[in-house]
Amino acid sequence: MDLTAEAARLRLRVVTDGRAGIENQALGLAEAISRLAPATIEVVRVVWQTPFDPLPADWKVPAMLAQGHEALAPGVDVWIGCGRASLPLALAVRRQPCAPFVVQVQDPRLPPRRFDFVVAPAHDGLKGGNVFEILGAPHRVTTARLAEAAPAFADRLASLPQPRVAAMIGGRSKVFDLTPGHAADLGRQIADAVVAAGGALLLTFSRRTPPEAEAAMRAALSDTPGWIWDGQGANPLFAFLEAADHVLVTEDSASMATEAASTGRPVHLLPMVPRRPSPKFARLREALEASGAARPFDPALPVWTYTPLDETRRAASAVLEAFAARG
Question: Which pLDDT band, with edges at 50, 70 and 90, does 86 fall under?
Answer without folding.
Answer: very high
